[in-house]
Design a protein that fits this description.
18% helix; Hsp20/alpha crystallin family protein; A-crystallin/Hsp20_dom; single chain; three-stranded antiparallel beta sheet; 30% strand; HSP20-like_chaperone
Length: 154
């Protein structure tokens, strides 16, 4: 009896003081080898409403969360926002936008953002001039001098 009354008071007070939660999608971003992973929390979102768009260097994630409705449903507290959710991210120039992929599991959208091949670390081959024959004069204009001169001129 008292428990019911106390519960009623607590929920009535909560209804008056609860502010609506912002319609944000909390995100984590990390690099794993040659790609980034963007993980967005999206609990309660209908997977069919999730949309991931890339327009130039702008990545946009949007979805829709609908509230539970029905006969006998009375909200006591409602902190998760409903409606359209959207988040935008600016991608760097070193991203391969053609290979971006996404997967939705357990209320988390994981967007895999690969690093472009041109931005990956790589070895640069060093090409040298052929060895000068024994006794060749440096002033004779051999290939070694030409390479050195071109390099110095740059």
């Amino acid at each position: 009896m008292y428990l019911t009354r106390d519960l009623e008071r607590a929920t009535a007070a909560r209804r008056l003081t609860s502010a609506p939660a912002p319609r944000a999608l909390p995100a984590d971003l990390y690099r794993d080898g040659d790609h980034y992973v963007l993980a967005l929390e999206m609990p309660g979102v209908d997977p069919g409403t999730i949309d991931v768009d890339v327009d130039g260097r702008l990545l946009t994630v949007s979805a829709r969360r609908t509230a539970l409705t029905g006969d006998g449903v009375e909200w006591i507290a409602r902190e998760r926002g409903t409606g359209d959710l959207r988040r935008r991210f600016t991608l760097g120039r070193s991203i391969d936008t053609e290979q971006i992929s996404a997967d939705y599991r357990d209320g988390v959208l994981s967007v895999v953002i690969p690093v472009a091949e041109t931005a990956k670390p790589r070895k640069v081959a060093v090409v040298g001039a052929p060895a000068a024959p024994a006794g060749a004069d440096a002033a004779s204009g051999d290939a070694g001098e030409t390479v050195a001169t071109e390099t110095a001129a740059e």
